[in-house]
């Protein structure tokens, strides 16, 4: 299979990228657009265990030469790739819009440019690395980074291009070779990234892309003893299997596994701003791991908040993601929509109150109405489980201690949002909430040098800045006896 296919005027290779060449598979799988599920966009190579072995072998062969380059030499490749991403921004945006239905404007203006920034950011961070140098017990000491080895990157179906670049960039900048396995529900932007890798002149085998079903090709990748790092974003259930495979080969492993973030509004907050931000959590059909999906509002402002929340939620427009007036896109896949709808139906049967929404927007499509549920108890499934759809819960609290109790009452801990006008309360809540990131009076403001990750079921390890570069490296201490060398 070598024939490329066309999506919205953009040519896409259906094949893997292994050792710098396009490699087909005997089996393929279909890719559909959530915007019109009845239309097949194309068929993609379906990798297997043998494909996984080929890709790891290519990465292993390319590793010594890539690792031997200086950070500045590797940065040249990463900046060249960033340039090409910016040049192909429009193509990448429309293909990803068709592939997973994220809003086209968000992709074109924010997420695709962020992909280029990821490569630039990590290239520069690696070059600017300052070795720790000190004297101790008659010796001169310094800490250096060594490239770790072939690295497997497994990415999710939401925001696939941005998240692929976010994970691959630090691995490459650190001197590792990469095997990227994109999600089978949204593989097309990764296929375009493969073209850009070749065009940027990366040495063969430094960056490989393997497509397919997780159990068929992903399992072979993470269990290969030649792999020295694994970075995964996805479900906790899959992470358990990957973690077991990594442990058998004693391979460091990071996992970002989603969240169930609280959005906490105190009576002293800018209630209008908080309500607007809360209604904004329906963006991208709620398919955002960082979203504040549990709205916690101080009881004294319950009615005022809900009035404003409904006002802003009413302004959402469900429609074609290519249309600039659309604010809520369809969900990724019929299987996923059925899963989300199942949560809502069980909530009804459980006696939770459906405050708004709660049904499919249009029969035959993948749009689900923005839904708000007031649970009968904090133990309700919709409170405790990640739904990953346009479904939020609403609860009230009495005081700060009650807010902290509710905020920390799930097994997740990726992010939290707090609205208050009190600096003292902002400090207390920021420290008290068990999460990898806490935003106060804002949301989704990201500094790429800051650590990113979760606690509890939200994952292990940290990405971002030097935290990611350290993960993708082996740290070595060199000690030289004072006066022993000239």
TrEMBL record:
PROSITE patterns per the UniProt record, alphabetical: ALDEHYDE_DEHYDR_CYS
Residue ranges of every copy of the Aldehyde dehydrogenase domain listed in the record: 26-478
Top-level taxon of origin: Bacteria
Listed SUPFAM superfamilies: ALDH-like
Keyword Kinase: no
TM segment ranges: none
Record InterPro entries: Ald_DH/histidinol_DH, Ald_DH_C, Ald_DH_CS_CYS, Ald_DH_N, Aldehyde_DH_dom
Key words, A-Z: NAD, Oxidoreductase
Family: Belongs to the aldehyde dehydrogenase family.
PANTHER family: 2-AMINOMUCONIC SEMIALDEHYDE DEHYDROGENASE (PTHR43720:SF2)
Name the record gives this protein: Aldehyde dehydrogenase
Organism: Kordiimonas pumila
């Amino acid at each position: 299979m070598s024939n490329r296919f066309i999506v919205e005027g953009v040519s896409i290779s259906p094949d893997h990228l292994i050792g710098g060449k396009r490699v087909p598979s005997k089996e393929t799988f279909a890719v559909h657009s959530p915007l019109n599920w009845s239309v097949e966009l194309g068929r993609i190579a379906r990798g297997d265990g043998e494909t996984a072995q080929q890709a790891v072998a290519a990465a292993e062969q390319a590793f010594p030469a890539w690792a031997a380059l200086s950070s500045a030499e590797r940065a040249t490749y990463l900046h060249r790739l960033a340039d090409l991403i910016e040049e192909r921004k429009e193509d990448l945006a429309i293909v990803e819009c068709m592939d997973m239905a994220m809003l086209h404007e968000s992709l074109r203006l924010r997420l695709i440019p962020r992909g280029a920034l990821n490569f630039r950011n990590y290239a520069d961070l690696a070059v600017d690395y300052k070795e720790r140098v000190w004297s101790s017990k008659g010796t001169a000491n310094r800490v250096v980074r060594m490239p770790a080895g072939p690295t497997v990157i497994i990415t999710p179906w939401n925001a696939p291009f941005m998240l692929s670049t976010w994970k691959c960039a630090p691995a490459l900048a650190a001197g590792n070779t990469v095997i990227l396995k994109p999600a089978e529900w949204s593989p097309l932007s990764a296929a375009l990234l493969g073209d850009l890798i070749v065009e940027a002149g990366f040495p063969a085998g430094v960056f490989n892309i393997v497509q397919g079903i997780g159990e068929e090709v992903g399992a072979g990748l993470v269990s290969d003893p030649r792999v020295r790092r694994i970075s995964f974003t996805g479900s906790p259930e899959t992470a358990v299997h990957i973690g077991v495979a990594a442990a058998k080969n004693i391979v460091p492993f990071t996992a970002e596994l989603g969240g169930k973030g609280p959005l906490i509004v105190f009576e002293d907050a800018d209630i209008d701003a908080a309500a607007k931000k809360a209604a904004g959590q329906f963006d991208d059909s709620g398919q955002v791991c960082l979203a504040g999906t549990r709205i916690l509002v101080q009881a004294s402002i319950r009615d005022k908040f809900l009035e404003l929340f409904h006002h802003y939620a009413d302004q959402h427009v469900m429609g074609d993601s290519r249309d600039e007036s659309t604010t809520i896109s369809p969900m990724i896949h019929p299987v996923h929509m059925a899963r989300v709808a199942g949560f809502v139906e069980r909530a009804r049967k459980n006696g939770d109150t459906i405050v708004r929404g709660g049904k499919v927007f249009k029969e035959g499509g993948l749009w689900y109405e923005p839904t708000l549920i007031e649970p009968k108890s904090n133990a309700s499934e919709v409170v405790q489980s990640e739904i990953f759809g346009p479904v939020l819960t609403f609860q009230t609290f009495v005081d700060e201690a009650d807010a902290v109790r509710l905020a920390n009452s799930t097994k997740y801990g990726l992010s939290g949002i707090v609205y208050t006008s009190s600096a003292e309360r902002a400090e207390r809540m920021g420290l008290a909430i068990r999460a990898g990131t806490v935003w106060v009076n804002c949301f989704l403001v990201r500094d790429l040098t800051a650590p990113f990750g979760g606690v509890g079921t939200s994952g292990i390890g940290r990405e971002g800045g030097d935290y990611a570069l350290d993960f993708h490296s082996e740290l070595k201490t060199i000690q030289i006896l004072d006066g022993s060398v000239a």
